[in-house]
Amino acid sequence: MPHWLQLMLDSLPTLLWAGVKFTIPLTLLSFALGLTLGLLTAVTRLFAAKPLVLLARFYVWVIRGTPLLVQLFVIFYGLPSVGILLDAFSAALIGFTLNVGAYSSEIIRAAISSVPKGQWEAAYSTGMTWGQAMRRTILPQASRVAVPPLSNTFISLVKDTSLAAAITVPELFQSAQRIVATTYEPLILYIEAALIYLALSSVLSHLQSRLETRFGRYGGMLEANR
């Protein structure tokens, strides 16, 4: 068996375990929390009082205008100087959540704005409150628009978690770096890590296509019922 193939087979369990233990949980938690934060931020920007709107805009402006790696460094290496100590995983989770929240808020805000005003009027005419109209009428229709870009955000997040290696989170990429440090075979190990990321992204892209098809059918039924 070629040396490079044996090395890849020997390192595969370690890399996969790092992905299962750190990369996947970090991705799922960050996306779930970030999506919640993004929804709250989008609703704030569309419907809240002006001071809250300005605060939400400032948050989105700062996060979208600075590199994710710098944000992670500020949280993990910078905050201890003011007495806030976080372990590496928590710092990464906060950083990714804030980042996903800012970008997803713009997607959700645009999706909500795309729903015709007549849908609001129709919901109110049936006696719904604002919250009921949002939950039962507006968000289901907005989700049809938001799903494709949010899916892309999720796939990008899977790859972005590799940046957590810079703040010592022992996820998939840092595990590859540690193996490289002992084997001195960077090309083989980094290609292997890239292939694992590629496999994860390919699976998610397939799921995204199926999800978009499902929401497309849902949107078609809505159009037929209007």
Main features:
transmembrane helix; AA_ABC_transptr_permease_3TM; 84% helix; mainly alpha; transmembrane; 226 residues; single chain; 0% strand; MetI-like; transport
Note poorly predicted spans: none
Question: How much of the polypeptide forms β-strand, as a percent range?
Answer: under 5%
Q: Looking at CATH, which topology would you report?
A: MetI-like fold
Domains, number? 1
Specify Rg, calculated over alpha carbons: 21 Å
Give an overview in words.
The protein contains eight helices and no strands. With 226 residues, it is mainly α. The protein has one domain: Orthogonal Bundle (MetI-like fold), CATH 1.10.3720. It is flat and about 70 Å long. The relative contact order is 0.14.
Write a compact overview of the structure shown.
The chain is mostly helical. The chain is built from 8 helices and no strands.
What is the fold's blueprint, element by element?
Blueprint: H1 3-47, H2 50-64, H3 68-78, H4 88-114, H5 117-125, H6 130-160, H7 172-183, H8 186-225
Helix pairs in contact: 1-2, 1-4, 1-7, 1-8, 2-4, 3-4, 4-6, 5-6, 6-8, 7-8
